[in-house]
Amino acid sequence: MHIKSSIYLLSFNFFILSIIFSTFVFADESPFPVERGLSINNVFNQKKRKRIALVIGNKDYLSSPLKNPINDASDIAEVLRDCEFRVHLFLNATKKEMEESIQDFGQELRKSKGGIGFFYFAGHGIQYKGINFLIPIDEKIISEADIEFEAVNANRVLIQMQEARNSLNMVFLDACRNNPYANSFRSTVKGLARMNAPKGSLVSYATAPFSVAYDGHGRNGIYTKHLIDKMRMPNVELSQMMKLIRAGVMKDTKGKQTPFEVSSLIGNFYFKTTEDYNINSVSMIENTLESLNDYSMHSSEGIIYDNDEKKLWLFLDKNLRLNYKKASFHVEGINRLKKKWRIPTYQEIYNFYQKIKSSDLFFEFALNGIYWTSSIEGKNRILFNFDTGNLFKSYSFNKFFCIAVTDY
User: Fold this and answer.
1) Most buried among 139, 156, 234, 346, by the most CB within 10 A?
2) Distance (Å, whole) CA 327 – CA 364
3) Closest CA to 325 of 406, 405, 404, 398
């Protein structure tokens, strides 16, 4: 019995020593996988994370100089420093400087171990074969064949951010100006193409894809002016900030320019925080968003608001093709905003198309393909082709896309 007790005592002591050893050796390792993104419950501790920014402003192009990028980049850098970012600022950067700075930026993000990344570019940017390129100051682009060799692929930034596996990344591109090489290019595509945002990141454009941004008449471009103003506001969450920027730009351009972003953010982020929530900031946000109603059309949460006709439009999943009976049943079952949704008539969808075809919303929602209408001609259903703007006839058992409308 005495021997058994000794064995049990030795086993227990060994177990305790194992726990102590594990505590010292593995103290820095979490038993849970680290999820990219910022905790909602950790708002006021975000400044403990390393904040790293790369800011580039290119203005003095030989072929087509710009007005604002030096001011834009310098002012963005100043605001970022005030928000406790470590800022790397490059003005009138060459291709080599841009590529090396992006690579160094990625390395610094990796070393930050969960830091926050911010990239901003102001200057010329063009899309080629669906890829966005940022134009350095020493470019020698004569034809489209030169773009891949003379410009910097914007995806380099996203790749560096993705490889860093840090907590949150932001990309802001004020580069959606007119193509400076349009006269010598066969392609006439305007603006930048949409890029996918890696997990835990946001990619923001001065305007919607395939559209052109306005420079404005002040020190800064219109988009960057509002970006600077809203970054300075305390206690404004990033997603909310983007709505404020969009509202401000739309107001200044009378609805002609709509900033656009692609987001896969996880959690919340604030550029500036104070311990006491600023009630004036809350009031200003509500008033600014309310001003969106001044425009005949805008979008929110995937719904297009037509304030003239007092209608809401909702485009269903583009992977969803249904016959008319199933489409009608599906649309009537939509539970959004406590409204009764329906398939529009041909006249309704035609009028909607005439209003939206030249707006940023047309490209933002990638409107194309053939959609059901509730109108009938003989034994055929009338459909609407968003690619051509014409009607299309078909039997009810064929499968097409769905669009829903409701009144408000």
Assistant:
1) 139
2) 24
3) 398
Query: Is the pTM for the entire model greater than 0.90?
Result: no
Cα–Cα distance measured from residue 344 to residue 286, given in angstroms and rounded to the nearest whole number: 32
User: pLDDT digit string (tens) for 28-54?
Assistant: 333 223 334 444 344 434 556 899 999
Q: Would you call 342 helix, strand, or coil by DSSP? A: strand
Q: Which of 400, 401, 396 is nearest to 379 (CA)?
A: 396
Q: In 3-state terms, what secondary structure has residue 51?
A: strand
Cβ-based neighbours of 222, under 8 Å, separated by 6 or more: 206, 213, 214, 215, 216, 249, 252, 253, 257
Who contacts 117 (Cβ-Cβ below 8 Å, separation ≥6)?
52, 53, 105, 109, 161, 164, 166, 168, 169, 170
Assess contact for 128 and 187: CB atoms under 8 A. Answer: yes
Owner of token pair 């500036």: 272
Residues β-bridged to residue 179: none
Helix (H, G, I), strand (E, B) or coil at 358: coil
Strand stretches in 130-274, DSSP E: 131-134, 152-153, 168-174, 201-205, 260-263
Here the tokens at position 14 are 């060994």
Render pLDDT for 261-272 as a digit per residue (tens, 0 to 9): 888 888 889 998
Residue 131 β-bridge partners: 128
Identify whether the C-beta of residue 170 lies closer than 8 Å to the C-beta of residue 105. Answer: no
291-347 pLDDT, tens digit per residue, is: 444 455 666 667 887 877 888 899 887 778 999 999 999 999 998 878 899 999 999
User: For residue 173, what are the β-bridge partners?
Assistant: 121, 205
CB-based contacts of 18: which residues, under 8 Å, 6+ apart? none
Residue found by looking up tokens 């227990």 in the block: 12
> What is the CA angle 123-125-128, rounded to 5?
170
Backbone φ and ψ of 373, nearest 5° = -120, 165
| CA proximity to 133, closest of 117, 114, 147 | 147
How many angstroms separate the most distant Cα atoms in the chain? Answer: 100
End-to-end CA separation in angstroms for the chain = 85
Encoded tokens for 351: 């009028």
Helix/strand/coil (H, E, C) string of 370-396?
A: EEEEEEEECCEEEEEECCCCEEEEECC
Rounded to whole angstroms, the Cα distance separating 150 from 123 reads: 15
By CB atoms closer than 10 A (0-12, 13-18, 19+), residue 206 is: buried
